[in-house]
Amino acid sequence: MLEKDIEKVLISREEISQRCAELGAVLTEEYQGKNPLVIGVLTGAVPFMADIIREMDCQLEMDFMDVSSYGNALVSSGEVKIIKDLDTNVEGRDILVVEDIIDSGRTLAYLVDLFKYRKANSVKIVTLLDKQEGRVVDIKADYVGFDVPNEFVVGYGLDFMGHYRNLPYVGVLKPSIYKPIN
Ligand code: 5GP
Ligand code: MG
Ligand code: MG
């Protein structure tokens, strides 16, 4: 059903699961004895968050934040707005931000500044995908799943107009889906 809209698969389900296990092992060491607050950026990070925390063999807490920068557009508006804030006080906490993809870097730059302003003890970033060519703001993830080219990708959390987040892999849509002929 969904697969008919996909032009090509960039990262398979197996590759994602393998990489989650690798990253999880590194994060397990990093956060041993630290009780990090793992913050998922809604909504795209949900599948990655669910997988990565189950590969982390240490005490941790979870929270979520929703910020908007994209709306339904294919390119970033450059604006970041808090839609849902954390329920947890981050002061003195070791924060691990979980993102689906870093493109311009604006969302994460904003969040890292915010958590530092709120006196977090440390702030690190794990992102499933890194689109380095899209970078406008100077920000680097501490842990990256995969580098991706400057293409609009969907699946494993990433949406087009709210859809395709539930694809178990990362792929590129057929042009006919996002460029309807009329
Ligand atoms: P940034 O602030 O780094 O430009 O953008 C981050 C957000 O933009 C991501 O969390 C994601 O929601 C969205 N985004 C960036 N590139 C893509 C892409 O290729 N596909 C999809 N579906 N969303 C993207
Ligand atoms: Mg995101
Ligand atoms: Mg989106």
UniProtKB/TrEMBL annotation:
Pathway: Purine metabolism; IMP biosynthesis via salvage pathway; IMP from hypoxanthine: step 1/1; Purine metabolism; GMP biosynthesis via salvage pathway; GMP from guanine: step 1/1
A GO-annotated cellular component: cytosol
GO biological process: GMP salvage; guanine salvage; hypoxanthine metabolic process; IMP salvage; purine ribonucleoside salvage
Cofactors required: Mg(2+)
Classification via InterPro entries: HGPRT, Hxn_phspho_trans, PRTase-like, PRTase_dom
UniProt EC number: 2.4.2.8
One Pfam match: Pribosyltran
SUPFAM superfamilies xrefs: PRTase-like (SSF53271)
Catalytic activity: IMP + diphosphate = hypoxanthine + 5-phospho-alpha-D-ribose 1-diphosphate; GMP + diphosphate = guanine + 5-phospho-alpha-D-ribose 1-diphosphate
Domain of life: Bacteria
UniProt keyword list: Cytoplasm, Glycosyltransferase, Magnesium, Metal-binding, Nucleotide-binding, Purine salvage, Transferase
Residue ranges of domain Phosphoribosyltransferase in the record: 15-160
Subcellular location: Cytoplasm
Any one GO MF annotation of this record: hypoxanthine phosphoribosyltransferase activity
EC class of the enzyme, as a word: transferase
Main localization category: cytoplasm
Family: Belongs to the purine/pyrimidine phosphoribosyltransferase family.
Primary role: Purine salvage pathway enzyme that catalyzes the transfer of the ribosyl-5-phosphate group from 5-phospho-alpha-D-ribose 1-diphosphate (PRPP) to the N9 position of the 6-oxopurines hypoxanthine and guanine to form the corresponding ribonucleotides IMP (inosine 5'-monophosphate) and GMP (guanosine 5'-monophosphate), with the release of PPi.
Protein name: Hypoxanthine phosphoribosyltransferase
Organism whose genome encodes this protein: Enterococcus aquimarinus
